[in-house]
Amino acid sequence: MVGKNASYDGSTLIARNEDAGEAVHPKKFVVIHHEDQPSEYHSKLSKFSIQLPDNPVRYTSVPDAAVDEGVWGEAGVNAHNVAMSATETITTNSRVLGADPLVKNGLGEEDLLTITLPYISSARDGVERVGSLLKKYGTYESNGIIFSDVNEIWYMETAGGHHWVAQRIPDDAYVIAPNQTGIQEVKFDDPDNFMFSKDLLKFVEKYHLNLTSNFNFREIFGSDTQLDHHYNTPRAWYGQRYFNPESVKDLSPMSNKLPFINYADRKITIEDIKFVLSSHYQDTPYDPFAPGADYKTNPYRPIGFNRNQELSILQLRPYVAEDHAAIQWLAFAGNPFNTIVPFYTHILDTPDCYRDTTTTLDSHNAYWANRLISLIVADHYQELMADVEDFQLKSLAYGHQRIAKVDKAVSGKKGGELMQALSQANERTADRIMKDTEELLTKLVTRASDNSRGAFTREHY
Predict the structure, then answer these.
(1) 31 - beta bridge partners?
(2) Do 308 and 333 meet the contact criterion of CB atoms below 8 Å apart?
C-alpha cells in the first residue's frame, strides 16, 4: 500500500500477490458487467449464500480458471474507480478465537471481491460494507482487505468470526503486509483514520484480551509464533530494508518489532512494488537462488516464489480524466520471472490471452507461458536470469510508453466510444507482450535444453 504523497506520480497504489497452496493454479483476467453479476451468490467452499443488491456496477476481477472451485476474484477496480484487494490470509491467536470462533458457513476470500466491489463508491464504503457483512454472516478465516480510491487507502483486518479494525494509510506512508495481523495502535476517537466493529472495546474487556495499557490490535488479536518468524515477518523485513534500510538495520528477519506504518526515503514507483513483490532476499544470506544455495534449507519464505499465481498493482491516477484514470498492472505465475502489464479497467472486455485461461496447458496463454518460464528459469537461474531481466526491463518501458500513448489517443472520447478504444488498446498491449513472452520462452527452452542433465555431444569422444 502506497499513499498518494508517497508514490512517484501522486497515485494511490495498492498491490497484492496471490499465492495458492500449489504451484500450478491457473488464473484469468476478466471484466464483469452489471448484467453478468449474479443477484444471488452461493459460495462453493463454505456454502455461504447471500441475496445481493440490485445495483451492481462494472468491475475487473482475477478469478480462478477452474470454475468448480469458486470465484476467488482477488483484485479489481470498479466503475467508480474504487480498487479492492481481497484478501490476504492473516493470523489470529487462540484466545481471540476462543472468545469469537470462526463461522464455518461464513464468508471468506473466495467471496469477498464479488460481493463487495460492485456495490461501493469509495474506499471507506468498502470498509463499511464488509463490516456489515461480518456482523451479519461472520467469516471462516482471518483476512486483510485493501480498499483504495484516488484519495484514500484503507486497510481492514478481521479477527475471530465477527470483529475487525480498519486504518486509513497516511498519504505519505507505505505499508508491507505479510500473512500476519499488522495494524498496531488504534485511536477510537479518530473516525477519519480508524473504523472498527462497534463492540470491539467491550469485547476485549469482557474476555481479558488486552495484556498492556494501550490498544495495539496486532498484540491483542494477532499471533507471534515460530511460523510467523519464518513465514511472515522476514518478508516485511526485506521490504522495509529495501525502502528504508536504516529503519531495520538493528532488527532481524524474525523480529516482532517491525512497524506497520512506514515512510520511505524516496518516492515509490511501479518498479519498486514489482521488485518487492518478486523478491527472494537478494543480496542477503537467505537468497535461495544464490550460487551454491540449497533452497530446501532456506529458513525464510520468499515473497516471489513458485506458488505465486498473479500479481496486481492497482493504480488510481489523479491527473487524467476519471474515465481512464484506473490501471490494473497484472502479472501471472512466478513473480521473479514474469513482467507486469498495464491494463485500463474502463473496458468492454479483457484480452483473450489473459481472459481465456483453461486448466490445460496452453503456451499461447499468458498464465501458462509465464508458468513455463518460471519452471525453466528456477532450475537454470544463473544461466538464464539475464535474459529474463532484459525482457522485464524492455516490457516495463513498453508499458509506460503505452500508457502515455493511449492517454493521449483517448483524450476527448466518452462513453461507449472510450470503452471500445481502451479495450482495443489493452488488446494491442497484450498482443505485444505475449509476442515478446513467447520469444523469451523459445530462447529459454533452447538455452536450457543445451545444458540439461544428460547432455552429450560427439565432442565427448
Answers:
(1) 60
(2) yes
358 three-class SS:
coil
What is the C-alpha to C-alpha distance for residues 261 and 266, in angstroms, rounded to an integer? 15
- By the 8 A CB rule, do 365 and 332 touch? no
Number of domains observed in the structure of the chain = 1
Is 71 within the bounds of a domain? yes
Name, in order, each residue with C-beta under 8 angstroms of 27's C-beta and a sequence gap of 6 or more: 18, 62, 63, 64, 65, 74, 309, 310, 332, 357, 367
* CATH number, domain with residue 242: 3.60.60.10
Report the amino acid identity of residue 30: V
Cβ(333)–Cβ(40) below 8 Å: no
Q: Measured between alpha carbons, how far is 59 from 81 in angstroms, rounded to an integer?
A: 9
What's the whole-model pTM score? 0.97
Report the alpha-carbon distance of residue 356 to residue 351 in Å, rounded. 8
Cell numbers representing residue 114 in the block:
464479488
**For 456, left (φ over 0), alpha (ψ -120 to 50), or beta?**
beta
Structure letter (DSSP) for residue 229 = I
The mean per-residue pLDDT over the stretch 36-57 comes to 96
In a domain, residue 400? The reply is no
Give, as one character, the DSSP assignment of residue 446.
Answer: H
Range of the domain at 184: 12-359
- For 328, the enclosing helix (H) or strand (E) is strand 326-332
Q: Which residues pair with 54 in a beta bridge?
A: none
34: nearest Cα among 54, 64, 63:
54
- The answer to whether the beta carbons of residues 209 and 187 sit under 8 Å apart is no
Residues 6 or more apart from 201 whose CB is under 8 A from it?
Answer: 188, 215
DSSP state of 459: G
Neighbours of 413 (CB within 10 A): 16
Strand 30-32 to 12-19 pairing:
unpaired
Q: Which of 30, 36, 112, 17 is nearest to 65 (CA)?
A: 30
Please check whether residue 243 lies inside any domain of the structure: yes
Cis peptide, bond prior to residue 92, ω within 30 of zero = no
Half-sphere exposure of 237 (CA within 13 A, CB side): 25
> pLDDT tens digits, residue range 345-357?
999 999 999 999 9
- At 4-37, the pLDDT tens digits run 999 999 999 999 999 999 999 999 999 999 999 9
The answer to the question of residue 2 being in a domain is no
Residues 6+ apart with CB under 8 A from 297: none
